[in-house]
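Field log, afternoon session.

UNIT: design team B
ACTIVITY: writing a sequence onto a fixed backbone
BACKBONE:
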């Protein structure tokens, strides 16, 4: 089945690095017009320089700011005439540490970016898609939307919330031809992960905890998000595609050192 992305118009938030950048590149390869959204203009414009000028639009925007998101979506529709797809990838881990020592400041940052940001994007993206006959939205959740996170309970809480928001929006707007799904990555080799864990060895150690024995590459998550965005997933809505190397399948049994007896 054709994925229907050629000639489509797609917004990608958090597009300046990591999964967002990989998703933008893949959507462009599939023939989409890509709209790169993020807080930092420099990385956005660096990514935009990779694409033909008539097929890309870079819009610096803080997803926490509702009016900024509204303006962003309006600019996209003004330029391209419609919005067909969105991958809402912007997010943050926040500060790591014990819950009893957490701060109001950290709460506000994590909840605002990870939950309010998705909510803002959904509101204005859905409104635009309803005017032009439907579309597809993919929210970036996390493996921590399915299990806890021992370093950042707030991060896990917001990613659980993203899944609830995704399912609810899918139910509300199915009749408008709008599909809403989520992708839940496990540990992925991004700039953010490197900042959090500090060294290649620390990242490799995280990867060894997964049944597949490594962290994901950003393109592996992007492939899942782009599949959900395209027509190959035309009968999929309200669902989450977990890309975690097997982490949520269960714990690995210790290696057997002797032959099993039957």
């Amino acid at each position: 089945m054709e994925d229907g992305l050629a000639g489509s118009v797609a917004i990608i938030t958090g597009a300046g690095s990591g999964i967002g950048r990989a998703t933008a590149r893949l959507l462009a390869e599939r023939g989409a017009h890509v709209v790169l959204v993020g807080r930092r203009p420099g990385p956005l414009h660096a990514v935009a320089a990779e694409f033909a000028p008539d097929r890309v639009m870079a819009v610096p925007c803080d997803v926490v700011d509702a009016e900024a998101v509204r303006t962003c979506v309006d600019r996209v529709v003004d330029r391209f005439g419609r919005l067909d797809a969105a991958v809402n990838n912007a997010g943050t881990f926040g500060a790591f540490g014990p819950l009893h020592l957490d701060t109001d400041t950290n709460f506000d940052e994590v909840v605002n970016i990870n939950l309010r940001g998705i909510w803002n994007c959904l509101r204005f993206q859905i409104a635009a898609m309803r005017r032009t006959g439907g579309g597809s939205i993919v929210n970036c959740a996390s493996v921590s939307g399915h299990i806890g996170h021992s370093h950042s309970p707030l991060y896990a809480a917001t990613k659980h919330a993203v899944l609830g928001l995704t399912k609810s929006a899918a139910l509300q707007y199915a009749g408008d031809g709008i599909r809403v799904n989520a992708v839940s990555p496990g540990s992925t080799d991004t700039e953010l992960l490197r900042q959090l864990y500090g060294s290649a060895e620390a990242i490799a150690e995280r990867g060894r905890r997964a049944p597949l024995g490594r962290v994901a590459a950003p393109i592996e998550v992007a492939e899942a998000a782009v599949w959900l965005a395209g027509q190959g997933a035309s009968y999929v809505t309200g669902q989450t595609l977990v890309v975690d190397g097997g982490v949520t399948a269960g714990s690995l049994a210790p290696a057997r050192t002797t032959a099993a007896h039957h």
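LOG NOTE: The helical segments are 18-29, 41-48, 66-80, 104-131, 153-173, 191-197, 200-208, 218-229.
NEXT ACTIVITY: expression trials, pending approval
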